[in-house]
Amino acid sequence: xxxxxxxxxxxxxxxxxxxxxxxxxxxxxxxxxxxxxxxxxxxxxxxxxxxxxxxxxxxxxxxxxxxxxxxxxxxxxxxxxxxxxxxxxxxxxxxxxxxxxxxxxxxxxxxxxxxxxxxxxxxxxxxxxxxxxxxxxxxxxxxxxxxxxxxxxxxxxxxxxxxxxxxxxxxxxxxxxxxxxxxxxxxxxxxxxxxxxxx
Length: 199
Ligand SMILES: [Fe+2]
Prior knowledge:
Helix content is 51%, strand content 12%. By secondary structure, it is mainly alpha-helical. The relative contact order is 0.15.
């Protein structure tokens, strides 16, 4: 099973002004493409080549196979990242069952928003901020580089890429402003809910 770069689920200019066409062209066409190319090269002679992307993430992390952790991890992360955003997304338009879990496990919308943004701001260097299901409950997480919650015994339902390639064109060094725009204006809560129902 070769990794493939999917088309974006919206036009390159659909997420403006919060995420520009230029950012999406570089991020999707260059950065995600590189993870696909390098991931396929790393899988070429690997016994993991026939496993699912999720299984490869877990096994590669447990066995410390860095090229697969980095590239297949980032492929998984970006596959979902494009779908975790949509035009006119974000804010409190959250499906009821997911909202109830956010209230019960994460202290409600406002605390979830603050803690998620804080996770992204405090991830030193490159990485991701997450909402994941772990031990039957939602939790805020952060991971470094290409890692994701699958590698840490959890199932991601929302992730925000905090690598500089995700925000530097639009926000320069202002990672907090990017994270605020992501939560307030971009999150596709229906896709988060879909992952929540499978987690
Ligand atoms: Fe990225």
